[in-house]
Amino acid sequence: MHNDGTVTPSSSNKRKKIVFASLGVLVIAGGGAALFLPDQEPALSVPDRVCQGSVPTTHVKSLLPEKGEAFEEGAIGFMAGLPRGLGKCDLSGGGNTVEIRYSRIQDPEYDRDWVRRGAAKPGNTPISLGPAGGYIESHNGVELFVDCPFAKGRKDLLEISVGLVGVPEVKDSARTAELSALTADVARGVARDVVGCEGAADLPDTAPKIG
After folding, report:
1. What is the distance between the alpha carbons of residues 104 and 145, in angstroms, rounded to a whole number?
2. CA 72, CA 10: separation in Å to the nearest integer?
3. Which of 30, 34, 81, 165 has the maximal Cβ count within 10 Å?
């Protein structure tokens, strides 16, 4: 981590794999215990915006189960107008967790060419959102990089990372599309409202192009 709170990204982010296999969920409330079978579990209630209000939840809702353990949010560094150089936001419910991270990079080694090399690695799939570029690095993880210079003439990047924990890493094109669309939502929210990146105005209000 740099003195101003920015960080240098690692070459790859390994996501934890968690497999949930149970017949029911034990809920303890008011001193009593009740066993909910899968078809009797309470519906998941997800707010309209998350990550301290900076991210809409259309795609979050698609990535979490409809029923199960109650929704929880843990976030820091996503307040509009109060950038920290990096932020994290964990959204959990129904046994799955969506992990969202951002960080401002000021090491010149990490530039557009570095992003393109990452996208070209075996197993990765390139994605783009207007001028922003990145890649799907596993079936459950997406990286997107937005122009966010610290000063005129620099080529610094804002790194957006979104991953899904709690499901097997198997090919699922629908899930990959939802993760990529959520990554675009996070990129727009952070670049425009939280950090205020120069490249934010060029981000389209669409899902990223995959491939």
Report:
1. 10
2. 27
3. 165
